[in-house]
Amino acid sequence: MRHQSDRLGLAFLTPALIFVVLFFLSPVVLTAVFSFTTMSTATGISGGTYRITPSAVRSAAEKGLNPATAERLSQERYTIDDDALTRATKAGIDAEILKELERDLKGKSTDDRRSFERLLKKLDNRPNRRQVKSISPHFRTSILNQSFEDRTTLDATLENLGLDAAERARVAETSYTGWIWTSANFRRMFLQPDTYRILINTIVYVFTTLVIFNTGYAMVLAIVTFYLPGRQATVYRTIWFLPRITPPVIYVLLWKWLAWDTGFISTITGWFGVASRNWMLDTSLNAWVFVVLINGFVGASMGMIIFSSAIKTIPESLFHASAVDGAYRWQQVRHIILPQLRWPILFLTTYQTLSLLSSFELIFLATNGGPGSATEVWSLAAFHLALSNYAGNLQYGLGAAFALILVLIGITASLFYLRLFKFSEMISKPRIEH
Amino acid sequence: MSSHLKTWPLSLFLGIVSFPLVLMYVYLVIDTITVTPPGSIIPEKFTLEDWRFLFEEATGRRPSIWSVTLNSFILASANSIVIVSISATAGYALSRLNVPFRSFFLAGMMVLHAFPTVTLIVSIFLILQMVGLYNTLIGVILVKASLLMPFGVWIMKGFYDTVPWEIEMAGVQDGASRFTVWRRLVLPQVQPGFLALGVFAFLDGWSEFILPQVLAPSSDVQVLSVYLAGLIADEFYFDFGLFKAVGLFYSVPVILLYLFFQDKLMNIYGGGSKG
Amino acid sequence: MRIVLDAVTKQFGAVKAIDDVTLEIVDGELLALLGPSGCGKTTTLFAICGIHRIDSGRILFGDLEVSGLPPQRRSVGVVFQSFALYPHMSVSENIGFPLQVRKESKAEIERKVDEVADLVHIRELLERRPAQLSGGQQQRVAIARAIVRRPDILLLDEPLANLDAKLRLEMRSELRRLQKETGITAVIVTHDQVEAMSMSDRIVIMDDGRILQIGTPDEMYHRPSNKFVAGFIGNPPISFADGKVEDGRFVTEGLDFDLPDRIKKASVTAGQNITLGVRPEYLQPDFATPIEAEITFIENQGREALYDLTLAGGHVFRSIQSGEPICKLGDKIRWGIDADASFFFDDQGKRI
Ligand SMILES: Nc1ncnc2c1ncn2[C@@H]1O[C@H](COP(=O)(O)OP(=O)(O)O)[C@@H](O)[C@H]1O
Ligand SMILES: [Mg+2]
After folding, report:
1. In the prediction, which pLDDT does B1 show?
2. In a designed cystine with A61, which of A70, A174, A195, A338 is the match (CB 3.0 to 4.6 A)?
3. How far is the centre of ligand 1, averaged over its atoms, from the C-alpha of C206 (Å)?
4. Quick check: C51 and A4 CB within 8 A?
5. Contact A404, A377 (CB under 8 A)
């Protein structure tokens, strides 16, 4: 009885925990795991097979495989075994000849075509030149371009070819098509010059949008609507709230209508003889202007709401008092309103830095990082690398490494919130204790 | 406020900066029902030609709008139902019940709630492939709901926090179990909260683009956002009138819900980050 | 039913909300828990009804120890300070709720609800919602809901605090009537001593989590066990003056008189600090122990008049006398106090 409400509490919490653990926490952990793999479209995400491709042999040789062994792997062989005999029978080769091969020469193998054909010519059945030529392809075998489901079958075959354990391991390593553990993603990330370009893009994007719109313009909106008569204020707040609730695909479509070469701006400028063009993508600068506008218009509404409600908590008497003092509106803003907004600004800045850092949806829809990669930001880069690029080989591992950086920033920032917003004050103990 | 101060300069200022925004939304409607000659911005004549997509059958290239709409509706409602029903219990547990490690869970929800979820898209994609939920609506719904869950729980906890303790105390004193107290006495008090969160989650699911785009792109599970984005990206098919008609069709539920629940939604969006 | 609290302690973190409280509530009595706000009255109530888990001690209902039982398994009706009516239910649903969770039949519930509604005179309000009721009506509904299932004990937390002055008077006698009619054991919490004095059989005075005195209103008034109780009970309140014992006399600036025999016998030593307490009715123009002072305040209440007397040393005494004021502000007077009926407290505040 003592634990009745404890048990109810756990039961009430469990469904949410299951959801959160499965599709929220495990992705956080797995982002880290994946970033240490070579996963890509080529490797697939489940295990792979062993495929002795010419390039696998070549890279095994580069890694120190004995050249003679490498040569042997690439070579063709002619072997008289059951498989080959069946193949030949199916292909309609003279049964007498095959019978003789099976009886006298089964198990024999040669390293090149000429010696195999010499064997054939010595048969009692005396196949003619044309027959010899048509028989030999069926007995040709090569380990090259063969796939092996697992390591044991690969090893067995390689052993037959006379490779020792060290050589086998080397070949297995280079011929494996699945993913393996690696730390190369991070090396690549830090070494490639693109990364720094992307980093700078991200900083510019976050800083500009945050300062101009998410806090600056949001504050202007909140203060101006505060001074407007009620009806007007509501209308303007509603208008500026629209970008936030409009589905992003449509919202960006509206901007495209404004900016594209058949769009509104081109039409207007066309009247003055300016050639129509895609204003959103024709120069890097324009692209940036639009990226900041598109994100900023959405971001401004959250600040507007938060600042508005902060201003609403200022006692009316303060304003009347200062009006009597003869303070002008600007002074009211400076001395009464702005001090009140200090805390909300801190909150908003930290919160929206995080959302701007990680959100790429709008940029993806608007410029997709273009022109070139002028507006490619960090989160978009992660997305492109892992999930959407034109080269076709999606590099999940590298993308995850890029994402991991954001995940780490996210965790740090969220923990920072916990301290900033005095978490301990928010929890009060349940007051029914039994 | 301050009637002795002139407000028209402020009004004028806002009017000017709001103009482009208003223009975009006005033309969203105008362009779907008119024909405008190239090089002009004044519509020439009325037409419903752009709305023909409503009556088109599915083709090899594109699914029918109705099946896509149904998918969107399923995603949005399922998101809403899952979020509301699960936050309803979890929010109550965190607000009112003695749960072991309660403050740990509270802190956890708070951290996750501030966490930028799109950063997880890469590993989510891989996980769904591994568990075989890739290219299914179920997969998208589960992911979408999970990512929104901490937010929902936190919001719901906020609503529960406003219910007076004495109501619950009176309930247990009257002999009701904590469960009965929750169901019969507390739930009715937080109904407005449910409604607000439900509408919010519906809109959130309805508008979602990146998740379905990445996790369920194939045409039989396509949702409206993916459909429209595909339409716009399709190089052979360039027609702003059509795009906007589909877009308007897509946004009608959003606009209606927004008009009805404006105040509540603003509260959730604004207070969203502190519950 | 007889309720016993045996050395009960309840802590919130570092705060001891109630500290070693021992108390017996006799079957059928109306007990008032009196004390300043924050002294632990509500906590005591919640410990009895089971909302709070106590940290040590025992609570007995009759002979049954209930300390470990949850509220649902103690038969206690509670009227909360805010009334805590369920806003989405009608009055009859509110009152019927405790019966409904006990799965009683519809007819039975209806019968009992009607019966209790008659008892508290809210028959005509049964279909309304709580929001459509006045404060006094809400109060009656809350009481009806608390007693409808015939609990062993009824607890009321500041039941009159949320009512306006006129209603407060009316509900005072109404509550008393209900308690008498039902014969239920009841504990009523209040910070208003007049309320406690006028309604209850016995009073428990608490301060800072501890019980200072338990007794009938009469005992409380005439035999307060300490300075705090003496100061808390009585309206207009008692006046105090700190002084010293010298040669069997009470000495302070502007006042010097022979201590009554009972005090002398109680082994007071010379030079000991001692506090005099005089209730306003024991300071009258013709009383024995003389006191010279200036009138610094007069309040004419019609039937009686209230005077503030300031002594040469700055001590202020109060006097209440029937009839119109007999002097003016600023008058120098020489009245007297009844030293035998006055209280003396030692430096610990205990009455000597
Ligand atoms: N749930 C609680 N958590 C922490 N402290 C509490 C709680 N309830 C009461 N207290 C503290 O215990 C003391 C007694 O409170 P209470 O019993 O409500 O006083 P009263 O009802 O006499 O005004 C106060 O100091 C109060 O601050
Ligand atoms: Mg209290």
Report:
1. 45
2. A70
3. 13
4. no
5. no
> Pairing relation of β-strands C185-190 and C30-34?
parallel
C12 Cβ closer than 6 Å to some ligand 1 atom: yes
CATH class of the region C239-345: mainly beta
- Residue of C12, C158, C207, C232 to test ligand 1 pocket, by largest number of atoms within 8 Å of CB: C12
Cα→Cα distances C269→A1, C244, C276, Å: 58, 10, 16
Q: Which of A39, A225, A410 sits opposite B119 (nearest CB)?
A: A410
In-domain check, residue B42: yes
Considering the domain architecture, whether residues B81 and B122 belong to the same structural domain is answered as yes
**pLDDT tens for residues C288-323?**
888 999 999 999 988 899 999 998 888 999 999 998
A324 pLDDT more than 70? no
Q: What are the chain C neighbours of B182 within 8 Å (beta carbons)?
A: none
CB of C15 sitting under 6 A from ligand 1: yes
- Rounded to whole angstroms, the Cα distance separating A223 from A206 reads 24
B266 CB-near residues (< 8 Å, 6+ apart): A237, A241, A305
pLDDT at B80: 95
Domain ranges of chain C: 3-232, 239-345
List, for residues A217-256, the tens digit of each pLDDT value: 999 999 888 888 888 888 888 889 888 888 999 999 889 8
- Looking at the fold, whether B41 and B140 belong to one and the same domain comes out as no
Given CA atoms A116, A118, A124, A129 in this order, what sign does their dihedral have? Answer: positive
Percent of chain A clearing pLDDT 90 (strictly above)? 14
Does the beta carbon of C40 sit less than 6 angstroms from any atom of ligand 1? Answer: yes
* Residue B46: pLDDT over 70: yes
Residue among C15, C204, C212 whose CB has most ligand 1 atoms within 8 A, to mutate = C15
C3-232 domain in CATH 3.40.50.300? yes
Residues 6+ apart with CB under 8 A from A418: B107, B110, B111
- Which domain, by its residues, includes B8? 2-47
Q: What is the pLDDT of residues A289-302, one digit of tens each?
A: 999 999 999 989 88
Cross-strand partners of C34? C190, C205
Residue of B nearest to C46 (CA): B169
On the question of pLDDT at A369 being above 60, the answer is yes
Nearest residue by C-alpha to atom 12 in ligand 1:
C17
Domain at B165, CATH number = 1.10.3720.10
What pLDDT score does B273 carry?
A: 39
State what percent of residues in chain B have pLDDT above 70. 92
The residue whose CA has the least distance to atom 7 of ligand 1 is C12
Please indicate whether, in this complex, the C-beta atoms of A433 and C68 are within 8 angstroms of each other. Answer: no
Residue B99, pLDDT score: 84
Q: Are residues B30 and B112 in the same domain?
A: no
Residues 129-148 of B with CB under 8 A from A: 129-130, 142-143, 145-147
Q: What is the pLDDT of residue B2?
A: 46
Element (H, E) at A173: helix A165-175
Report pLDDT for A323: 64
Q: Do B130 and B23 share a domain, yes or no?
A: no
Q: Which of residues 17-56 of C touch B (CB under 8 A)?
A: 46, 49-51
- Select from C53, C59, C66 the residue whose CB has the most chain A CBs within 10 Å, as the one to mutate to test that interface: C53
What's the pLDDT score for residue A327?
Answer: 63
CA distance B122 to A403: 7
Sorted by where each starts, the structural domains of chain A and their CATH numbers stand as 50-175 (no CATH), 187-433 (1.10.3720.10)
Low-confidence residues of chain C: pLDDT under 50: none
Among B26-40, B188-202, C162-176, top mean pLDDT goes to B188-202
B205 and B259 in a common domain: yes
Q: What is the spatial distance between Cα C209 and Cα C16, in angstroms, rounded to a whole number?
A: 7
**Same domain for B106 and B225:** yes
Same domain as B67, residue B41: no
Partner-chain contact B269 A225, CB within 8 Å: no
Atom 18 (ligand 1) nearest CA: C42
Specify the pTM. Answer: 0.84
d(CA A314, CA B4): 19
